[in-house]
Predict the 3D structure of the following.
Amino acid sequence: MPHPVSTLRIAILCSPDTQLASVAPFLDLARLSRQADGQMGEQERTPVLDVELIRTGGQPSSLFEPLVSPGSDAFPIGCSAIILPAGADLSGSIPVPDERCLTWLEAEYRRGVWIGGIGTGVLMLAAAAMLNGGPASIPPRHNQLIRSLYPRITHGHVGGIVEYGRILTAGECASTFALAVMLTRRIHSHGLAERYRRECGILEAVVPDDSHLPMRQNSDLLVAEARAWIIAHMQDRIDIPSLAAHFNVSARTLSRRFHRSTGTTPAHFLRSVRMDTALSMLRRTRFSVEQIAHLVGYSDVGAFREVFHSHMGISPREYRMANLSSQP
C-alpha cells in the first residue's frame, strides 16, 4: 500500500481586487507538483505543494472560481510560505494589513515561514515594517513614495526580485513566475523548481541564486518605468497620451525615447506584452478565451481574437489545442 505523501502549503491572501496574474503561477506550480508526484516511484516521492486561498476583505473575483475553492477566512498555522499578491494599484497610498493579519504574518515569519510580496503586496510588507533594514523590489510607480516613507529599506530596487531574510519581493506582476521558481527552490527542491522553470520557459539567467534579478536593461529610466507601468496595467485601457502624461512628458517625447531605447513603440510594446501573457495563459491555465481576453486588457473578445490571429496566424483556441497535443 503506498505511503501517504506529505504536503507543503502555500497560503495566498486574496481580496476582491487581487490580480489573478499574480496568483495563477502558484496554482500552476501546485498542479505540476501533483503531476510530478504521480510519476515518482515509491522511494522517490517528495512533498506535494498545495495552495490555500485566504480571503481578506471579501470574496475574490469570480475569475478564480474555475480554478480553486472559494477559500477560507481563517489564517492557517503550519504553512511553508505565505504570498501577498498584487492588488489594485492605489496611487499615492499604501495598503496596511489589519492588526489580526499583521500578528499572523509576524508569528509565522518567526516560526520559519517564507513570505513573498508581489506588486502592492510589497507595499503591505513595507507598511508592516517587515522590510526594515534590508532591500526590496519596489513597484516602480511607488518607488519615490516608499523611499520617503520607509528610509530604512536600504535599497529600493525598482523591478526584479530581491531576497531579504526569508522574504522574496517582486515589484512587478510579470516577475511572479520567476518568484515562484525561487520560492520552490527554498521550500521544496531544485528538481521541482527546474521542472517548473522549463515548463514556463523562464531563462535560467532570470532566476539566479543570488536573487538580484536584472529584469530591466534600459539605460533610459523613463523608458524603464514606462515599460514596467505598461506591464502592471496591461489589463486597463491604455492610450499613449495618457501614459505620457502620467510621466509628465509629451506623447512625442515618450514615443521617441521609447523607440530609441527599445526599437519599438509604446503601442507595439503594449500589444506584445498582452499577446505574450495571453500565450502563457493559453498554455498554462484553464482560463477560457473570454477570461484571458479580459485579463490582458481586451473588453471586446472579438477584437482580442482578431489581434491574436494577426499576431500568431491562428486563433486562440487553435493555439491552445496545438500546445495541448504537443505536451507529453
